[in-house]
Prior knowledge:
- The protein has 102 residues and is mainly alpha-helical.
- Helix content is 94%, strand content 0%.
- The relative contact order is 0.03.
Amino acid sequence: xxxxxxxxDGVKTGIFAAGVLFGTAGIKILSSQDAKKVYTxxxxxxxxAKKCVMKTATTIQENADIYAEAKAINDEREAAEEVVxxxxxxxxxxxxxxxxxx
Length: 102
């Protein structure tokens, strides 16, 4: 029987017992009413943060829409300017042909 106790390491057994003790105490602490209040408050804070992030994301999306609309306006203006430039060039060419014919 003495051989059995010689093979048991007291330090490892003590560490195991301490782990079981802290584990049991930890479960009781984590399931207490105070801990539940902390969890509830943390969850509420996360939900508030989510609301703030979603509001910011919506603002960014709205600004992206404004940017896209502004870009479309500029594209339309450039297209109109090209039409005006083409018309001016055609008028110049027709005036040159008329002056050379005379």
